[in-house]
Design a protein that fits this description.
The complex is a heterodimer of chains A (about 270) and B (about 260). In chain A, about 75% of the residues lie in helices and about 0% in strands. Chain A has one domain: MetI-like (MetI-like fold), CATH 1.10.3720.10. Chain A has ten helices and no strands. Chain B is an alpha/beta fold and about 260 residues long. Chain B has a single domain, classed as P-loop containing nucleotide triphosphate hydrolases (Rossmann fold). In chain B, a hairpin with a 4-residue loop joins β9 and β10. In chain B, α4 packs across α5. The relative contact order of chain B is 0.18. Chains A and B meet through α7 and α8 of A and β6 and α3 of B.
């Protein structure tokens, strides 16, 4: 019964992507669109396969390099993102907790926040050169603000009586931060982190297209110069899958850390 | 010996945006002995919760002072336990961990915390729900956790702010009986805020009736009734009539008074 349900739910999820791929394949094969402009999925799959394994040489210079490229991109995401999580959560809790810190820091942050991270690219290149560092800086910027804003919101919307309850049980300021405010703000912090990880991938790829000579974004741009749209799309697919995987891992971590949130969602009773 | 003393307490709330002020409490004087079960009775807006908040240390009196064991109350502290109107449990902690939160702050080992919590879980009748989260329990069960949490702390004074007001009548009666039983078995000093005359008569050893706007002590009544209280007995109804008369009289006099908002 359970297996049957799993299969049913899985096939529901596959209906739309599979139909799109089939129609796309037909379009390309039957010549509705020039196959140079829109390569067929099968062709993309062959290029992606060679890019990963290096077996047919279809991906030319990138043949067999996929793991390297993916690892370079992933490293930039992880480095910039971790930096952003640590700083944004710390600063966010301080701003949410202290009126003085709010007055001191919030105006500056609210002015910097609307500047799109990509606008920092020129400065990032001047400051950090052409390598990992500008990319990490941009990833940091992109994920910092969503995490910060959500953390501040999470701390500010805590039930004031929870803090009072903590105080009446003898909690000092540190206890309140560690055992009341941080756990109470965690759901907000995590939703900021999920938004942030998406922005992190966006900015890695953007940075790689402009300021870095490795990674999935670089391959995407390089393939575009050589009119290899199959590789362009293969890069897009790789980025999508990696972004999906990081979000999936994050979701699993969240579910493990917030067992008390399980069953809070409206539809929870159905499963 | 007086255990809690409230001396000439006054509380004014200033609304700076509108430039007005409201006097919530005026000239409050009373004292409580150890192991008394005191009910603060009054209608909504009479300042009874404000008074409790000041005893808890959430707010400071505008004038006057409150002493517990001859020490002036300056802020929150674990010497007083609080049971809120909404259970106000940490939603990320299980029943057991919520109850032993105080011990965790004391740095007690996890094993000891669990053992200690179990006693109070059994006392309030939640055996079997140790590892449930608050959102998995009913309102009445959560309120039991809130009471167990305050009892475990073993405070010299337990403050309760209409803890049963949000419960349905059946659960409410159960909880009242249970609280009376717990108080009889494990004597504590309790200050219990309520707007229900019956509830005050079922629970208290002493009722402090507050009048409205600004809140003043209308009358302090020492109850001389056996437990468990019989809500249909003549003496119960005699007390009830006395209190209801007070409330009606107070209403008639306060209607002629000046408006509560005064321009500063």
């Amino acid at each position: 019964m359970k297996l049957k349900q799993t299969i049913a739910s899985f096939s529901t999820k596959l209906v739309v992507p599979l139909s799109i791929i089939v129609i796309w394949e037909l379009f390309s094969r039957l010549g509705f669109v020039s196959s140079a402009l829109l390569p067929a999925p099968t062709k993309i799959l062959v290029s992606l396969g060679d890019w990963i394994t290096g077996s047919t040489g279809a991906a030319e210079v990138h043949s067999g390099q996929w793991l390297n490229d993916a690892a370079s991109s992933a490293w930039r995401v992880i480095a910039g993102y971790s930096l952003a999580v640590v700083t944004a959560v710390t600063i966010g809790i301080i701003i949410g907790w202290s009126k003085f810190a709010e007055k001191l820091l919030e105006p500056t942050i609210q002015i910097l926040r609307p500047i799109p991270p990509v606008a920092w690219i020129p400065l990032a290149i001047i400051w950090f050169g052409i390598a990992n560092r500008p990319a990490i800086f941009l990833v940091f910027l992109a994920s910092f603000f969503p995490i910060l804003v959500n953390t501040i919101h999470g701390v500010r919307t805590i039930d004031k009586n929870l803090v009072r309850a903590g105080g009446m049980m003898g909690a000092n300021q540190w206890h309140l931060l560690r055992y009341v405010i941080l756990p109470a703000a965690l759901p907000s912090i995590f939703s900021g982190m999920r938004i942030g990880v998406g922005s992190a991938w966006m900015l890695t790829v953007t940075a790689e297209m402009i300021a870095v000579k490795s990674g999935l974004g670089y391959v995407l741009w390089d393939a575009y110069y050589f009119l290899r749209y199959d590789l362009v799309i293969a890069s897009m697919v790789s980025i999508g899958l990696l972004g999906f995987s990081t979000d999936f891992i994050l979701k699993k971590i969240i579910a493990a850390v917030l067992p008390w949130q399980r069953g809070v969602s409206i539809e929870s009773t159905q499963s | 010996m007086e255990f809690l003393e409230v001396k000439n307490v006054e509380k004014v709330f200033k609304d700076e945006k509108r430039g007005t002020s409201v006097k919530a409490l005026e000239n409050i004087n009373f004292s409580i002995k150890e192991n008394e079960f005191v009910c603060l009775l009054g209608g909504s807006g009479c300042g009874k919760s404000t008074l409790l908040n000041m005893i808890a240390g959430f707010e400071k009196p505008t004038a006057g002072e409150i002493l517990v064991n001859r020490k002036k109350i300056e802020g929150m502290g674990a010497d007083r336990g609080m049971v809120f109107q909404a259970p106000t449990l940490m939603p990320w902690l299980t029943v057991s961990k919520n109850i032993s939160f105080y011990l965790k702050l004391q740095g007690m080992s996890r094993k000891k915390q669990k053992e200690e919590a179990q006693k109070y879980i059994d006392m309030v009748g939640l055996t079997g729900f140790e590892n449930h989260y608050p959102h998995e329990l009913s309102g009445g069960m959560n309120q039991r956790v809130g009471i167990a949490r305050a009892l475990l702390q073993n405070p010299s004074l337990i403050l309760m702010d209409e803890p049963f007001a949000a419960l349905d009548p059946f659960t409410k009666t159960d909880m009242q009986e249970e609280l009376a039983r717990i108080w009889q078995e494990h004597k504590r000093t309790i200050i219990f805020v309520t707007h229900s005359v019956e509830e005050a008569l079922i629970l208290g050893t002493k009722i402090i009736v507050l009048s409205n706007r600004p809140g003043r002590v209308n009358k302090i009544i020492d109850l001389d009734m056996s437990r468990p209280r019989d809500t249909t007995s003549p003496i119960f109804n005699q007390y009830k009539r006395e209190i209801l008369d007070l409330i009606v009289k107070n209403k008639n006099t306060s209607e002629r008074k000046t408006p509560i908002h005064q321009v500063i």
